[in-house]
Design a protein that fits this description.
Layout (H helix, E strand, L loop, with lengths): L3 E2 L5 E2 L18 H12 L1 H4 L4 H35 L6 H44 L6 H18 L1 H26 L5 H4 L15 H12 L19 H28 L4 H5 L5 H10 L1 H35 L18 H60 L12 H21 L1 H23 L9 H7 L2
Antiparallel strand pairs: 1-2
Helix pairs in contact: 1-6, 1-9, 1-12, 3-8, 3-9, 3-13, 3-14, 4-5, 4-12, 4-13, 4-15, 4-16, 5-6, 5-12, 5-13, 6-9, 6-12, 8-14, 11-12, 12-13, 13-14, 13-15, 14-15
Protein name: Ethanolamine permease
Main location: membrane
Keywords: Cell membrane, Membrane, Transmembrane, Transmembrane helix
Length: 483
């Protein structure tokens, strides 16, 4: 078989017999599993990370930022609910962009999403180690041991099989929601508005918006943490029994759940203990909340339960980057070796190992370069903002893909149609651009932007020099080539 020339100067090379058989996945997921995967991937954002928005925006700034970001995610999830059953491929964001913007646009989108999914687990496991260190009194120098241990355990669970992965995800997601519900019920009698508004306002501003509208913009990247990674669900399309029916239901049910958890967590956490002033700098706000309500010993036990929420996201996002790297590799954008699956369990073992190794390497390099205290700042905030920057780029591209798919391919079967349509996608793109613009212009966030831009530049250079000559007609590529 001869090479086939595709659009944008790419070449589809022939592959050996058995290529796709050695890269097969197994169908297992239904609506409940997809809901748990979406909520589980995000739920850690309620336990840590979002609260730094209180420190830069105050209670009012963080509340308004969350409303803006919620609007963006509603537009995004309705768009995904339409695109994912219409293009039910593991490629997800890359697949959507590839079908409407060619291989260059598809790979750019895939690289942006790759940044998000590889770095998000590093931030989550950092918060896990912070909680575990506070619970067990672990010395600071030993924190990397928590990282290694959690990566090893949950990498093994993801490799073991898709059935076990989804079962674990469902259980830990339900337990995480139960812990949050206990926290909300416990916090409600102790809530005080004056605590939520206890950040001293800058001159000319109110206690509700102590830093003015600039505080709202500064809080946007942290509000993203309440919803970040819900968009991973389309990556499970080839492991869903009926993606045309179940994918829209799973995505929208997950988003509805996350809206409720976000606002209950934000409001009730800000109004207890040391209030917004304390919670805005805490690495474990739910633990601090339990301490304020129950005191030290019982709070420690409850905090151990709270780690379940972080674990749920860690496990689910390992699933996500495994499938994301797998899909780009199966199509030849990344080295094809990374798309090999376990011969019996049909899990993307090579992609899971590569993504875990990359994430852990980044964490350990930061730790060795700047030490414990510096690593806390870089991992807890800079890597978080890097993940958000990558996510905003991918959301922008996915919104454009939705609009172009509506305009250029109106006749493809759409089992579900977004009620928000093109205006919803436009809102998603506009808010993503606003968040990107703020990150680029703010010196505090710019340190997160440059490494992401560098990673994408290196990836695109690799594609230009080598990758574009080694593409494979995987399912998403074959769909994109159809006219």
């Amino acid at each position: 078989m001869r090479d086939k020339v595709g659009p944008g100067g790419v070449t589809y090379a022939p592959v050996a017999a058995g290529y796709f058989e050695s890269r097969g996945l197994r169908r297992h997921a239904g609506v409940a599993s997809l809901w748990a995967l979406g909520v589980g991937a995000v739920i850690s954002g309620d336990f840590s990370g979002w609260n730094f928005g209180l420190g830069v925006g105050g209670f009012g700034g963080m509340l308004l930022a969350t409303l803006v970001i919620m609007t963006m995610y509603l537009g995004l999830t309705f768009s995904l609910a339409e695109m994912s059953p219409a293009l039910p491929h593991t490629g997800g964001a890359y697949s959507f962009a590839r079908s409407t913007m060619g291989p260059w646009g598809g790979f750019f989108t895939g690289l942006a999403e790759n940044v998000e999914f590889v770095l998000t687990p590093t931030v989550v496991v950092f918060f896990i180690s912070t909680y575990m260190g506070a619970i067990f009194g672990t010395p600071g120098w030993a924190m990397p041991l928590w990282w290694l241990g959690f990566y090893a355990v949950f990498l093994a669970l993801n490799i073991w099989g898709v059935e076990l992965s989804f079962r674990v995800t469902l259980v830990v997601t339900l337990l995480a929601l139960a812990v949050l519900a206990l926290f909300w019920i416990s916090a409600l009698p102790h809530f005080r508005w004056e605590l939520a508004l206890n950040i001293p306002p800058e001159p000319g501003h109110s206690a509700f918006l102590p830093f003015g509208l600039g505080g709202v913009l500064a809080a946007l990247p942290f509000a993203v943490w309440f919803f970040l990674a819900i968009e991973q669900l389309p990556l499970a399309a080839e492991e869903s029994h009926d993606p045309q029916r179940d994918m829209p239901r799973g995505i929208l049910a997950g988003m509805a759940t996350l809206v409720v958890t976000a606002f209950l967590t934000l409001v009730l956490t800000a109004g207890i203990g040391g209030g917004a002033a304390q919670m805005g700098t805490s690495a474990e706000p739910i633990l601090d909340g339990f301490r304020a309500i129950y005191g030290g010993d019982l709070a420690r036990l409850l905090a151990l339960a709270a780690v379940i929420g972080l674990v749920a996201s860690f496990h689910a996002i390992l699933f996500a980057f495994g499938r994301q790297i797998y899909s780009l590799s199966r199509a030849g954008y990344l080295p094809r070796l990374l798309s090999l699956t376990h011969p019996e369990r049909k899990t993307p073992v090579a992609a899971l190992l590569a993504g875990s190794a990359l994430g852990l390497s980044i964490m350990l390099l930061v730790w060795l370069a700047v030490g414990e205290e510096g690593a806390t700042t870089i991992i807890g905030t800079t890597l978080l903002n890097m993940a958000v920057f990558g996510a905003m780029l991918s959301y922008l591209m996915q919104a454009i893909a939705f609009i172009r798919l509506r305009l250029t391919r109106p006749d493809i079967p759409r089992p579900y149609r977004s009620p928000l349509g093109i205006p919803g996608a436009v809102a998603t793109a506009a808010i993503a651009l606003l968040t990107l613009a703020w990150q680029v212009q703010d010196p505090a966030y710019r340190a997160a932007v440059l490494p992401v831009a560098g990673w994408i530049a290196v990836g695109m250079a690799y594609f230009a020099l080598r990758g574009r000559h080694r593409l494979v007609l995987s399912p998403e590529e074959a769909f994109a080539m159809r006219r």
